[in-house]
Amino acid sequence: MTVMETTPGTRTDSCAAPPHPHRRPEGQDSYTISEVVAFTGLSAHTLRWYERIGLMPHIDRSHTGQRRYSNRDLDWLDLVGKLRLTGMPVAAMVRYAELVREGDHTFTERFELLETTRQDVLSRIAELQDTLAVLDRKISFYADAGHAYETEKAG
Asked: Within the chain, which residues score under 70 in pLDDT?
């Protein structure tokens, strides 16, 4: 069972990632770790670490023991990448993965965890907008001052 699959009879938790042109059709979607490294930009070490800490458990293996990732695993990695960008702590991402695997009865806790993260992101966006406004004022000042200096120097 992959991290995106829950217990039998439960809803599928879709990452809602946009389609990827390099993805193989369902049933033929078996990727090596080096292919996943190329697709995601993550290192093989990071992928193994995600598996070790429970963020990417249950990765299928070939008959020789090599990891085999599916489209669902790639979708999950897309979501993990987005969660990382939000600043969500790794422990919270692991908790989210655990909740997904536990099934539908965890919807409320998942909602709360993501809603808290969303509020944090909105706060960071507001801080960045304030910072951008300061930079814009400084840039405008220096553009005007530079223009005035050049005009004064030329005249």
From this structure: 1-22, 25, 27
